[in-house]
Amino acid sequence: MRFDEAYSGNVFIKSHPSYEESKVVIYGMPMDWTVSYRPGSRFGPARIREVSIGIEEYSPYLDKDLNDLKYFDAGDIPLPFGNAQKSLDLIEEYLDGLLADGKFPLGMGGEHLVTWPVIKAMYKKYPDLAIIHMDAHTDLRENYEGEPLSHSTPIRKAADLIGPQNIYSFGIRSGMKEEFEWAKEVGMHLFKFDVHKPLQEILPTLAGRPVYVTIDIDVLDPAHAPGTGTVDAGGITSRELLASIHEIAHSDVRVVGADLVEVAPIYDHSEQTVNTASKLLREMLLGFVK
C-alpha cells in the first residue's frame, strides 16, 4: 500500500504535506463490522478530521504547538465492507509498512477490534512491548456469540500474544464475571473504575519500555462522550482522561504508537464527542511523540 500520496479529503489540522519528512503518520481504520450493539464508528475518523479545524494548534497543558511537529495524515485505510478478517490483514500490512519506514503510528477507529492487528505489527518490532489500555470494557472475551472476531476480544487476543502480565487496563467498569476472574488468575493488570491515580502508580514500573497506548472513547462517561457504540454509565471525565494522557507524556515510558477508537458520530448530535476526540488526539500527538 502507498503511504506517501496526499489524502484528497479533509485532513487533521496542520497535517504536513510530505510523508517522507513527517515523523508521525495519522491514519483511519473505518471498520465496525463486528460491533455487538450500535454500528457507526467507521465514520469516526472522517468526522474527527473535519472538526479538528476548530481546535487550536497550541496545547496550554504541554506548552507545545502542532506547528512544531511534522505529521502526515494518510487518510483511511480502504477496508472491504463486512469482511473482518481481510480488513484486519490489511491493517496489519499497513502498519508493517509504517514501522519499516520508522514512523510513529497514530490510528483512529473504528471499532476496538482494529487495535488487534496493530498490536500484532507492533509486537514484531518491539518484542518487549507493553500495552496501556483505557476503556469501559474488559475486551477479554475469547468470542462473542461464538464469533472470535469481535470488538469484545482484542485485549484477550493481545494478552495471548504478548503475555497478560504486559497488559495494563484502566477505567474498566463492565465485562463478564469470567473476564475479571481470568485477568486476576493470569496476572494481568486490571484497574477498575479509575484511570489517573492507578496510572500514576504504574508508569514508573514501565520506564524505558516500549509502550502502545490504546484509548476507547467510552472510557469517558456518556455525559462527556455520548457518540459511541456502547455507552456505559459511571465513566471518567474528559479532564481526567486529559490528565492521564499528560501523565504518560511526562513519564519515562517510551510510547511507540497509539490509537483512539469507537467514536461514532451518528449518536453525537452536539458533536461533543468528536470535538473531544480531536482535542485528545492533539494532546497525544504533542505528548507521546518525543
UniProtKB/TrEMBL annotation:
Catalytic activity annotation: agmatine + H2O = urea + putrescine
Cofactor: Mn(2+)
Keyword Plastid: no
One annotated GO molecular function: agmatinase activity
Residue sites binding Mn(2+) per the record: 112, 135, 137, 139, 216, 218
Entry's EC annotation: 3.5.3.11
InterPro entries registered for this protein in UniProt: Agmatinase-rel (IPR005925), Ureohydrolase (IPR006035), Ureohydrolase_dom_sf (IPR023696), Ureohydrolase_Mn_BS (IPR020855)
UniProt keyword annotations, A-Z: Hydrolase, Manganese, Metal-binding, Polyamine biosynthesis, Putrescine biosynthesis, Spermidine biosynthesis
Free-text remark on how the cofactor is bound: Binds 2 manganese ions per subunit.
Pfam families: Arginase
UniProt pathway: Amine and polyamine biosynthesis; putrescine biosynthesis via agmatine pathway; putrescine from agmatine: step 1/1
Domain of life where this protein originates: Bacteria
A biological-process GO annotation: spermidine biosynthetic process
Enzyme class, spelled out: hydrolase
Membership in a protein family: Belongs to the arginase family. Agmatinase subfamily.
Role played: Catalyzes the formation of putrescine from agmatine.
Protein name: Agmatinase
Organism from which the protein derives: Niallia endozanthoxylica
Recorded name of the encoding gene: speB
